[in-house]
Amino acid sequence: MKKRNLYLNVIPVEEALDSYLSVVKKRVPLKTEIIPVVQALGRVTVSAVYAKYNSPLYNSAAMDGVAVVSQKTKDACELKPLVLQKEDFLVVDTGDPVHEPFDAVIMAEDLIETDDGGLQITEPAMSWQHIRPVGEDIVAHELILTSNHKIRPMDVGVLLSGGITEIEVYKQVNVAIFATGTEIIEPDQNIADGVIIESNSRMFEGLVAEQGAKPFRLGILQDDYALIRDNVREACEKFDVVIVNAGSSAGTEDFTVHVLRELGEVFVHGVAIKPGKPVILAMVGDKPVVGLPGYPVSAYVCYQNFVRPLLNHLQNFAEENRETVRAFLSKRLVSSLKHKEYVRVKVGKVDDKIIATPLARGAGAAMSLVRADGFCIIEQNQEGLDAGDSVTVELCRSLKEIENTVVSIGSHDLMLDILADMLPNKYKNMYLSSSHVGSLAGLMALKRGEAHMAPIHLLDEESGIYNIPMIKKLFTGGCRQMALIKGVKRVQGFIVPKGNPENISAMSDVARCRYINRQSGAGTRVLFDYLLRKNGISCEQVNGYDKEAATHMAVAALVQSGAVDCGMGIESAARAMNLDFVPVGFEEYDFAIERNNLDLPHVKAFIDVLKSEDFKQKVMRLGGYEFSACGEIVSVS
């Protein structure tokens, strides 16, 4: 029986990092090297750097004009101009040497040429006028840079001006990167069931390079103990740091920790962090080796918490704190007392409040890293946070970008991706942030002041009218004046596999297939429930009624995979996944908004893009849309 790795004890994040860095500092001396100054950008100086030469090297002209003896010009004035003869001046350009007896420069624009080759001036020149004295900028032996200084572009220029062409800096760290897993393949290999496209190592390459170190991706290693051991051993001989991705958890073929125990010492295996618990911190001889979890979010979080400070130390970089902001949480977050948890959030400014909306929390939800504006950190020994709690968010985007972002929370549609792409292209530094929680949940977020707008498609069964009745119902009696930005009419129906093998053509057919539903409160779910009642079908008769997908594309993906036979969604999602579609009818997809938010510059920009012909043409290519009132404002009293 293969042996599993078990974490009987996990260590707090700060304790794990401090204990590991203390070992690294004892065993790994910081290395230095002498390199050309022109290659030193971003490197850190080992010792103070002093100028070799003066700058300028000589007294030089600061302007184009003529060098003169100032004493000879003292009588010049407007009423009695003075004419300088050829022997009284020397023509100079900016940067030319100015030698005795000349001690001043008159600018070319202050000179009038005479017919005999002389120059007329109307005011005297002061001694050292428009002359840069030797050493004005830099004096030989003057301190240029202190030790432990990260070299910037302007520093390179000053070093060269001071005669410094080589400089001693802390050595750039070479980092070996391995991906492990028999199921892992390169992106250009054939796709099949049971394989996973390897991407984490490419993320690590970028993160390592971003830190000024040199990444060396050494490919994918299959789950073979001897293969992993031999490659890690060889990498430790050649490189300064080794990263081994995946194989650090409790699986029977997770060999990394056993390999590192054989080759060296494991100081930490299991940290109280979520996601990312299985991280390994080890040493092989005098080389740090870090085993990072395989799930993308876990890998990223552990890199930031452990590899980043390690590389900063080895290159003597100062830790750079991320920009943080206080925000109000839009919904409750439950967390374990056992972990410090990093929750990805979307962030936007609504009225005078910064709102943080949690994204998918799964360790494998890689797109949440792309969508995230920041991380909300729930400390260990904290059970969670309530909706409305004030939290600290570490930002991944600038606060200026966030302040110019339209916050949209509600129903999902593919056209939101088009709007998100077009908005910053047409209006620089204006953005759209959309979170897909369903129509009803979007309206509730709008009511709590957590969004600028809520995309909705809610049918009122009594009146047959979309959206307006529900807005009136939820916002009646308050002082908030509401409006509706008209969006599109879109076709709803059943998304089915190519060829429609189950021959689904009506609501009655849904009861005999495997169905995937939308989440409670989604407009599609409301429509589906209405159609069930209209056709006398109970939800108990639907196989899969309780199985939910968060977006139309998620429904289409499940149908395409063969996991289900059918799901209700929009035509564009079916087309995007090359599936068949059985139309049910048009619905109205609009944007609920408070009237006062209509005056915001980024909301005005959003409406302008929504009304544009370019937008309509792009959405038409998706299929299943009409634009009869797109961008019109309807008052909801």
Automatic annotation (TrEMBL):
Pfam families: MoCF_biosynth (PF00994), MoeA_C (PF03454), MoeA_N (PF03453), PBP_like (PF12727). PROSITE patterns: MOCF_BIOSYNTHESIS_2 (PS01079). SMART domains: MoCF_biosynth (SM00852). Its EC number is 2.10.1.1. Keywords: Magnesium, Metal-binding, Molybdenum, Molybdenum cofactor biosynthesis, Transferase. InterPro entries: MoaB/Mog-like_dom_sf, MoaB/Mog_dom, MoCF_biosynth_CS, MoeA-like, MoeA_C_domain_IV, MoeA_C_domain_IV_sf, MoeA_linker/N, MoeA_linker/N_sf. Its cofactor is Mg(2+). Residues 176-313 form the MoaB/Mog domain. Pathway: Cofactor biosynthesis; molybdopterin biosynthesis. The keyword Repeat does not apply. It catalyses: adenylyl-molybdopterin + molybdate = Mo-molybdopterin + AMP + H(+). Catalyzes the insertion of molybdate into adenylated molybdopterin with the concomitant release of AMP. Belongs to the MoeA family. This is Molybdopterin molybdenumtransferase. The lineage of its organism: Bacteria, Pseudomonadati, Thermodesulfobacteriota, Desulfovibrionia, Desulfovibrionales.
